[in-house]
Design brief:
Structural class: mainly alpha
Bound molecules: heme C
Distance between the termini: 57 Å
Strand content: under 5%
Number of helices: 6
Radius of gyration: 15 Å
Order of helices and strands: HHHHHH
Number of strands: 0
Largest sheet: none
Shape: globular
């Protein structure tokens, strides 16, 4: 019963995302988790994508333009996320997923592309 309900809910969430975000891969905040991010961070790709979704959906309820993963230090994310998870009312697994996503996304060079200092 409970499971069927959450699957239906998940379907609704994905339908909403599809409706509001035509290009989810670059329409959101922060880099979309890919194989490279999973490899660099040693995290499961599905786990990172779950964290990405939490970041887009939950954090933006209160932060329409949330700080990007690389704008906060690793240590500060560890401190901020538990408090924000409480703010958002998300469960422990979502909290873990969003924290791992933020830490993994920080390691991605893509945000700085075009800076032109690397030669
Ligand atoms: C219910 C509203 C709410 C939700 C949901 C929420 N936040 Fe916040 N957030 C706040 C408020 C209010 C502050 C400032 C006061 C404080 O630090 O508690 C804040 C502060 C922050 C800060 C400190 C820097 C700043 O911008 O002021 C960061 C970083 C942050 N939030 C990230 C997140 C992330 C990541 C999530 C999702 C996991 C999230 N927040 C979800 C309300 C929220």
């Amino acid at each position: 019963m409970k499971k069927a309900h959450s699957i239906a809910l998940l379907g609704t969430v994905f339908a909403l995302i599809a409706a509001c975000t035509p290009a989810i891969t670059d329409g959101g905040y922060g880099p979309f988790p890919n194989e490279e991010m999973a490899r660099l961070s040693g995290q499961d790709l599905g786990h990172l994508q779950r964290g990405y979704m939490v970041y887009q959906k939950q954090c933006q309820q209160c932060h329409p333009q949330p700080l990007l993963p690389h704008e906060v230090s690793e240590g500060d994310w560890h401190i901020v996320v538990p408090g924000m998870a409480w703010n958002a009312g998300i469960d422990h697994e979502d909290e873990e997923a969003v924290l791992q996503y933020l830490l993994a996304a920080r390691q991605m060079p893509s945000d700085n592309a075009g800076g032109g200092s690397q030669q």
